[in-house]
Structure formats: C-alpha cells, structure tokens
Amino acid sequence: MALGQVARTLGRVAGVTAGAAIATDAARRLHASSRWGVRARLGAAGDLPEWVLPTDVLASYAEAEEHREAADDLGLPMVLDEVNAWAAMGALAALLRLVDDGTHRSQVVDLGGRWSPLSRWCRALGFAVSREVPHERGSVDLLARLHPAGAVADDVDAVLELAGVVLRPGGVVVVTVPVGDADAEGALGRADLRALEARADGWGLRLVGDLDGEVGRRLTAAVRGARDDEQERTDGSAYALARLTLRRR
User: Fold this and answer.
1) Distances in Å between the alpha carbon of 138 and those of 68, 98, 105, 119, 151?
2) How far apart are CA 194 and CA 190, in angstroms?
3) 203 dihedral zone (left: phi>0; alpha: psi -120 to 50; beta)
4) Is beta strand 128-130 parallel, antiparallel or unpaired with respect to 56-58?
5) Predicted confidence band at 173 (pLDDT cuts at 50, 70, 90)?
6) Is 74 exposed, middle or buried (0-12, 13-18, 19+ CB in 10 A)?
7) Coil, strand or helix: which one is 220?
8) Cα separation of 104 and 111, whole Å?
9) How do residues 104-149 score in pLDDT, each as one tens digit?
10) Which helix (H) or strand (E) holds 73?
C-alpha cells in the first residue's frame, strides 16, 4: 500500500438501552476480569517487544500491522486500525520504560480524543488518564498527541511548548507528525526535525533517540522511496509518519 495513504488517514456511541441491563452488567464483569489479565501479562516494561521504540518512523503498513499484532498478543483492548496501534504502542513503551516505576501511578494526558487506543490501553493497565490539560505546572508524567489526531508542521511547536510546562522532570511527551519532502503539505523533513529538536531544547525537552542513528536512516530511506514515487510527489501528500518522544529535563 502506498506510503502516502499513511498520512491521508490523518484526516479520518454506542448506546445501551434499559432492556440490556443484564448484558451491560456482564460486560462490566468481563471488562474488569480482562483488565486484571492485561495487568498480569504487561506488568513491566520488559513485557513489550524490544522493537517497539518510543521514537520511530513508520514506513509501511506491514510494520504497523506488526505492532497491532503485538498488542493483541499482550491482551490489550482491540484496535482495528494498524496505524493507530503503531502510534499508541510507541507511547505505551515510553510510559513503561521511561516514566513509570512499576506501580502504574503515572499521570497520563492523552490529547488524541475519546476513542484513543492509548487511553483505552492505559486505563486497562490501571493508569489514570485525562483528556484535559491540568492547570498545575509539572503535574503530568506522559503527554501524548497521536495519530489520527497528531500534530502537523504548523502546530507541533505548541504541543512541545505545552509539554515543557506541564511535564514533571523526567516526564515525556509523545507526538506523531507526518514526514515528507518539500512538496508534502504539513509534513516535516529531516532538516525540519533537527530544527524542531533544537527548539525543544529551549523548552527543557530532549529527544529520545538519535536523528543521526537508526531513526535518521529510516527517515532517509522513507524520503528516498517517496522521491521514486512520482504520484506521491505530485499530489503533495505526506508519505510516512514519525513518532517523536521527548523527555523533560
């Protein structure tokens, strides 16, 4: 599937009747039991596959499907969209490996919307999750804004600046941004990411990962691949997704 479709997905209640009270009660019991099952199987950062990285570049749907299958294997609540699962798995890795002390008491603010996979997974694991940014400075352990409600080139700075205010020392912000070449509207190139990394330092944030290392190589490969695809260049679409994790000093 064309990589341009990854970024195009950026654009994309159930009720219970009174007669379904018994079924609702059964569903609550099932949810409670499955929640404890997830906590038993995903009690520590080491339970996540090593290849799930806090900072990464998504270059294919096959990679995204791998992440969704890993979430299923861990017993996390089901996610149908593989790109959503890819975004959320990296944020969960950041939470478990970089922030939480094993007690699952970290405070999570998820700006991804009501049905965010990250919110559902964190709650299943016992974390407190809010969709509202608190007024107190330094009160959040993880701030996330992820695909399909991730940031674009014009507003990613605002997310990081906010993180510099609300995160505790050692807390992390995880954001997804489209990446592309100069013709990709709303996307960031490698030079843009370097400039963003430099600006983030002014807000007390340091990138987890190395743009000169594997992340940079994957980004370069994605750019090279897009340049070989004339259609992706002419329609102005972004063609890959980056997940950036930055830690508060």
Assistant:
1) 32, 16, 15, 20, 22
2) 6
3) alpha
4) unpaired
5) very high
6) middle
7) helix
8) 19
9) 999 999 998 778 999 999 999 999 999 999 999 999 999 999 999 9
10) helix 61-73
pTM of the model: 0.81
Identify whether the C-beta of residue 115 lies closer than 8 Å to the C-beta of residue 109.
no
pLDDT category of residue 83 using cuts at 50, 70 and 90: very high
Tokens of 123: 């709650």
Contact 180, 225 (CB under 8 A): no
What tokens were used for 141? 């352990």
Place of tokens 């950026």: 10
Q: Which residue has the higher pLDDT, 36 or 15?
A: 36
H/E run at residue 223: helix 214-227
Residue recorded with tokens 């983030």: 200
Angle, helices 214-227/190-202, rounded to nearest 10 degrees: 140
CA distances from 137 to 140, 159, 162, 164, 201 (A): 8, 15, 10, 9, 18
Say if residue 2 is exposed, middle or buried (CB neighbours under 10 Å; 0-12, 13-18, 19+): middle
For 93, the token pair is: 């890795």
Measure the CA angle with vertex 213, ends 212 and 217; round to 5°: 90
Angle (nearest 5°) at CA 20 between 15 and 25: 95
Per DSSP, the three-state class of 142 is strand
- Residue 190 DSSP class: H
The sign of the CA dihedral 241, 215, 152, 173 is positive
